[in-house]
């Protein structure tokens, strides 16, 4: 079973709420999903000034070395002036040794975001693509195919885009993810798992192909032997038939036309 990590940074919990829906979607697709958070880099006094709640105890922290344990990743974070927040880039920067060994090469990844007013939700993800490119990872966007009604909905505010699911938290962070936004996050998790599982499935090696071919050969051999035996049996009977016909012709004085 493929195993994916949902790696988050959340100041007020909006991203965490979306992450749990992404995890449900991944699990619904038959894969394993675990939600993690990156270490906080802001001092405690600053967090108190901005009235940030305590980090959830049920979501463990993750570091760069842990990334090798997973088949793929879904990163979730808020936008900071249209770019990735420093807490996430700290994780990216710490993955230099993984770049050197190619540990993340061809591993799939996706993104989802949270913004205050909707601005920056796409540029934030675009700025994160640099990390994937240098690591040789594969970006799996959300797209429109399975989320067109949700993303194009103009009847209510929603923070998703073809780049990834998202929510609009409001200038004071009081707005929570809506059922529409949560549905999009769920779909993203499900779609990501289906695509990423195909990308991470073991490829059929030449040895496997040769083994399968050998199995087909051994299976068909008895049939060939039986056919050969039957042919030999028919050939053995032919002289007897000809001899009988010759005797018959001697008695009747008639020639035999073969």
From TrEMBL:
InterPro entries for this protein: Flavodoxin/NO_synth, Flavoprotein-like_sf, Flavoprotein_WrbA-like, FMN_Rdtase-like_dom
SUPFAM superfamilies for this protein: Flavoproteins
GO MF terms held by the record: FMN binding; NAD(P)H dehydrogenase (quinone) activity
Subcellular location: Cell membrane
Gene Ontology biological-process entries: cellular response to oxidative stress
UniProt xrefs under Pfam families: FMN_red (PF03358)
GO cellular component, one term: plasma membrane
Top-level taxon of the source organism: Eukaryota
Function description: Flavodoxin-like protein (FLP) that plays a role in cell wall integrity, oxidative stress protection and virulence. FLPs act as NAD(P)H quinone oxidoreductases. Reduces ubiquinone (coenzyme Q), enabling it to serve as an antioxidant in the membrane.
Entry similarity comment: Belongs to the WrbA family.
Record's protein name: Flavodoxin-like domain-containing protein
Protein species of origin: Ogataea haglerorum
């Amino acid at each position: 079973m493929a195993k994916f990590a949902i790696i988050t940074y959340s100041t007020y919990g909006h991203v965490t709420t979306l992450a749990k829906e992404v995890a449900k979607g991944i699990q619904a697709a038959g894969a394993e999903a675990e939600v993690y958070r990156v270490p906080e880099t802001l001092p405690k006094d600053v967090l108190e000034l901005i009235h940030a709640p305590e980090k959830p105890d049920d979501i463990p922290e993750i570091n760069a070395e842990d990334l090798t344990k997973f088949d793929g990743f879904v990163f979730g974070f808020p936008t900071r002036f249209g770019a990735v927040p420093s807490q996430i880039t700290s994780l990216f920067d710490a993955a230099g040794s993984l770049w050197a060994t190619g540990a993340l090469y061809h591993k799939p990844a996706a993104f989802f975001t949270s913004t205050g007013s909707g601005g920056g939700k796409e540029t934030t993800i675009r700025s994160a693509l640099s990390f994937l490119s240098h690591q040789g990872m594969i970006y799996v966007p959300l797209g429109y195919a399975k989320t067109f009604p949700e993303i194009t909905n103009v009847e209510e505010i929603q923070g998703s885009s073809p780049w990834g699911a998202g929510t609009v938290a409001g200038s004071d962070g009081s707005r929570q993810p809506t059922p529409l936004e949560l549905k999009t996050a769920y779909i993203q998790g499900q779609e990501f798992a289906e695509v990423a599982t195909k990308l991470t499935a073991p490829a059929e090696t030449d040895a496997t192909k040769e083994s399968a071919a050998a199995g087909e050969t051994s299976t068909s051999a008895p049939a060939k032997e039986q056919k050969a035996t039957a042919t030999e049996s028919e050939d053995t009977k032919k002289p007897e038939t000809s001899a009988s016909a010759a005797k018959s012709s001697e008695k009747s004085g008639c020639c035999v036309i073969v």
